[in-house]
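Lab notebook page, bench 4
Experiment: in silico fold of construct C2
Operator: M.H.
Input chain length: 180 residues
Purpose: comparison with the prior construct
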Amino acid sequence: MEHKIETERLLLRPLIKSDIAFMQVLMERQESYQYETETPKPKAEIKKQCRWYMKRASALPDEGAIRWVVIHDGVRIGEVHVTCNWERTLEWEIGWYFLAEYWGKAFATEASKAAITYVFAHFKVNRLAAFINAENKRSAALAGRAGMVLEGRLRETRLVQGTYCDEYVFSLLKRDYIQD
């Protein structure tokens, strides 16, 4: 299965080798990591991570991971990724990164909603979760717009640039998604 997703304005397609240079640009930007435990990674590590996603996509839909590159008008603008955390309980995790110049234009909302729809339709998922730094108001709002429910706040669970930060846990269950 190709795992390509099309929306009104966007194309989400699985990461391929020719996307690695874009991913290096996206993942090296400071705004991509201002709320993350990790600091920007070196290009070689980003390349290794991209290859991991490409390899893990072969295990779908039962387990594995996929990183979709988000394209608008022929231009790569971001990515949405899902990873199977627990095969036995069918828990998956979703995350996203977008170039800052495309923030505030509803691209991330459109892409994440499309990915969520696709995941529940095609993968073996019971629970889809997002773990978001509580200071990252934009990402938390995006999770809500995408239909995810705020489950709780984990206190001081992230260490960002030497400061402990709280983390929100959002989720969407298959039974809730199907009812909507």
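Observations: The longest strand covers residues 75-86. The chain has a mean pLDDT of 93.
Next step: discuss at group meeting.
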